[in-house]
Amino acid sequence: MGLLDALILGVLQGLTEFLPVSSSGHLALGKHLLGLTTHGLMFEVALHVATALAVVLAYRRRLSGLVEALPHALSLAAWRVSPGSSKVHLERAGNLRLMLFLVLATVPAGVAGLLLKDSVESAFNSPRVVCLMLVATGVVLFVSRFAPAGSKRGLTWGRVLLIGVAQAFALLPGISRSGTTITAGLLLGLSPGLAAEFSLLLALPAIFGATVVEIASQFAVAPPDFPGTWALIVGLGGAFFSGLIAIFFLLKILQKGRFDYFAWYCWAIAALGLILL
Length: 277
Known about the structure:
The chain is mainly α. It has one domain (3-276). Helix content is 75%, strand content 0%. The protein has helices at 3-18, 23-34, 41-58, 60-69, 76-79, 87-115, 117-123, 127-143, 157-169, 177-187, 192-221, 229-255, 262-276. α2 (23-34) packs antiparallel against α8 (127-143), α3 packs across α12 and α4 crosses α6. The longest helix has 30 residues, at 192-221. It is globular. It starts with a helix and ends with a helix.
């Protein structure tokens, strides 16, 4: 794999991981249309980890709060909130609650991934299926325009579970993880900022969990191939920096209430894929 191929795949992964257009769908179609190939599983895993690191950097303050609250998870007093609770205590209790929400929302995709692993993997080999799933993503994004405006509902167990179910559908190539989870949050009454934050934080256990499973399954068959050093560096850099740009752009789009505009893009890419493939 050349350096240009590594850069294209890295940038493609970074931009589409967080924008609601399906990174898996774009990578699958991109490799078919451009004749690009990765250097085995490890390169694709590295690209996903790079995009996860972009989230870590973008939400470093939020994540540091979660890490600081973790040692207090076994203390019942840390979970209790009263009118006289200090600001520090309220933040700690909120972070502990958020950690449980992230765990709960990760469960549906984890269960679906284990049960439907073979079916999902076979879908990646069908450009037609990817295109049809991109059409479905476009429909989901278009529906987001009907979300209640000005709502300020918070996260609850029920809303978090529904967002997790929405994420499970994104196992299919062409279904956008960020698109389905953010749209679910918006339809459930979350503010655009909260819906985006929870979706992006939810990407971390999803990406790292999938990474561990894929590497373990690969080692069970044979030692994975490792890409060349420079190809890996170029791919990682492209995925990381384009991921940061995508996060910034996503938040700006949500603030302007134009999330559904991505539906037209998904439909256009799906139509192009169906014509060319």
